[in-house]
Amino acid sequence: MIRVILPAPLRALARVDGELVLDVDGPATLRSLLDAIEAGYPALRGTIRDRITQHRRPFVRFFACEQDLSHELPDTPLPRSVAGGTEPFMIVGAIAGG
Amino acid sequence: MSDVRVLVGTRKGAFVLSADGKRERWDLSGPHLPGWEIYHVKGSPADPNRLYASQSSGWFGQVIQRSDDGGRSWAPVGNQFAYDGVPGTHQWYDGTPHPWEFKRVWHLEPALTDPDTVYAGVEDAALFRSTDGAQTWQELSGLRGHGSGPRWQPGAGGMCLHTILLDPGDPKRIFIAISAAGAFRTDDGGTTWQPINRGLRSEYIPEPTAEVGHCVHRIAMHRSRPKVLFMQKHWDVMRSDDAGESWHEVSGNLPTDFGFPIDVHAHEPDTVYVVPITSDSLHFPPEGKLRVYRSRTGGNEWEALTKGLPQRDCYVNVLRDAMAVDSLDSCGVYFGTTGGQVYASADAGDNWAAIVRDLPPVLSVEVQTLA
Fold first, then answer.
1. What is the interface pTM, i.e. ipTM, of the complex?
2. Which CATH number fits domain B82-355: 2.40.10.270, 2.60.40.420, 1.25.40.10, 2.130.10.10?
3. Mutation choice for A interface testing from B11, B54, B60 by most A CBs within 10 A
C-alpha cells in the first residue's frame, strides 16, 4: 500500500479528497507507482508525466522522506517507508511565480 | 423567445453567462475548472448541450473537458495529441530550426452536424480531429506535411493554430490559420492543404509577400457566403472574395489596423467588427479608448462604436478568440478583455454594457443562441 499526496489542482481533476492509497504491481518504483496512479485515475494521464515520452513534466516534483526524488530514474525502487505506506509520496507543483 | 449562453474562457477557469433573448439580465456560473487556463470553450451546433473545453496548465499540461449538459458538469476526455511520424522542425524566433513540440490546445471547433466530431488547433501548430466525442485524437498531418512547415515560426504567443472555419456549404472544405505561418485551406476534408496567403504583405519577414510566414491573427466568415473571408492580420485588415485565393486590404479609415479578433454580423454578411489595438508593442487601445469598429460595407469604411465602452484610461487588450456574435434577430455582439470584463451589445454594436466585470483575463468568448 502506497500513500500519495497530490497537489490541489490534480486532486480536483481526479475528484479525490485527501491521499490516494494504491497498490502497485511488482516492485514499488517511480514507474510502477505512476502506472498505478494513471490506471486508477485516468484523468491524471498526461498531467504528471508526458503521455508520449513518459518523462516527468518539468514543473512537477516528487518528494518523499524529506528527499527530492524528482531526478531518480523511473525504475529506481521507492524508499522502503514509502513502499510500506509509512511515509507518503508527494507530487508537488514546482514553485514558479505566485 | 430564444435564450443566449456566453462561454468565457479565462486564465483561471471557465464561466458561463446566461440570459433570455432580451439580453438585459445575466446569470453567471463558474468558475468551472478553476485555477486552470481555459483557452477555449465551444458548443456543438448539432447539440448545444455538448460543450468542449481546452484546459491547460504550465505545471500539469493539457486536459480536454466535455460537458453534456450545457456546462453544468464536466468530465475529462482524451488528451493524447501525438503528431504523426517524426514531427521535424520549424523556425525559432531567431530563424534557427526548433523541434516541433506539443504545448496546448488553443481552439476547439465542433463539427457542424455531428456532436461527436470536433477539431483541435494546437501549439506547436497542427490540426487534430476526434470522431468519438474527444476520447481519441488523430492528426490531419497533411497540413504539417504540406512542405512549408520548416519555414513556419512562432508569434509572440507561440506557434499556434488558432482559427478553424468549417465551410457550411462544403463539408470537405476547412480554413485554418496559424501564427505565424498564415492561412491554409483543404478541399478534401483535411488530407491535403494549400497556403492561401496571396496578397498578404508582412514587413517583419525577409520576403514580405512570401507564401508562408505571415502572422494571421484571426479569420472570420459569414455562413451564407463562405467564399468571402475577413482577416485581422498582425497589421492590416484583409478581405478575400475567392475563398482565400487572393486577399486585398480593407483597413480603410481605422485608427490602427493592428488587432486580434474579427467577426461578422449574424445576418449582414458585409457587416464586420474589429477592435483596433495601438501596435504590436503597445497591446492596448489607442488613446486609452476602448472602441469596436464596425464596417457595414465589407471593409474600408469603418465607424467607431463607443456607447457604453470606457473612453478614457482603458488599457486592456482583446485577444483573438475573445469576440463572438449571437444569431438573434437583433444581432448581439460580445467580447472579453484582458482586464476581465465581458461586454455585450444587443443591438449590433450601437450600445454596449459589461455583462460581467473582474473575471480573470479573458482568453475566449463564444456565444450559443438556444431555441
1. 0.94
2. 2.130.10.10
3. B60
